[in-house]
Amino acid sequence: MHSAPFASLDVFTLYALLRLRSDVFVVEQHCAYPDLDGRDTEPSTVHVWLTDPPGPVLAYLRVLTEPDGSARIGRVATAPTHRGQGLAGRLLTEAVTVIGPRPATLDAQTTAIRVYERFGFTISGPRFLDDGIEHVPMHRPAPTP
Q: Which of 3, 73, 86, 144 makes a 20 to 30 Å CA pair with 18?
């Protein structure tokens, strides 16, 4: 498990993270969209990923800080060859640690709702299409002490 802000990523790691995102979201899911949205480089953004040294990146997500201080999980991706092995769950466990006591949101592909529910996320709005893929907004309140 690895996590780091953008400024701490070496060029080879950054390339591998962006390659996985491109392979999954642009190529596999046929979504031509601006993946490089400027949020990766924000000082508060934390990139979380799993590798199989010395192999490629197997799974990835990023944790953003929204203007209101809450967290947003996004760009959750697992290499097709490694799906069904619990990697997304491992990433989300780390993401919850990174988020800490803040509330969090995400936009889940409807096929992944159950994964996020295991981490305390609940559906918080109507389904919508994003690049032709059905999503649903989800929210996880700040943990109570």
A: 86
The pTM score is 0.90
d(CA 122, CA 120): 7
* Per-residue model confidence as pLDDT tens digits over 107-122: 999 999 999 999 999 9
* Rounded Cα–Cα distance for residues 51 and 121 (Å): 26
Distance CA 116, CA 108 (A): 8
Task: Give residue 56's pLDDT.
Answer: 87
Residue 74: helix, strand or coil by DSSP? strand
- The three-class DSSP label of residue 97 is helix
Residue 21: exposure state from Cβ atoms within 10 A (0-12, 13-18, ≥19): buried
Residues 6+ apart with CB under 8 A from 5: 43, 44, 45, 46, 47
User: Checking DSSP bridges between strand 71-78 and strand 128-130, what pairing results, if any?
Assistant: unpaired
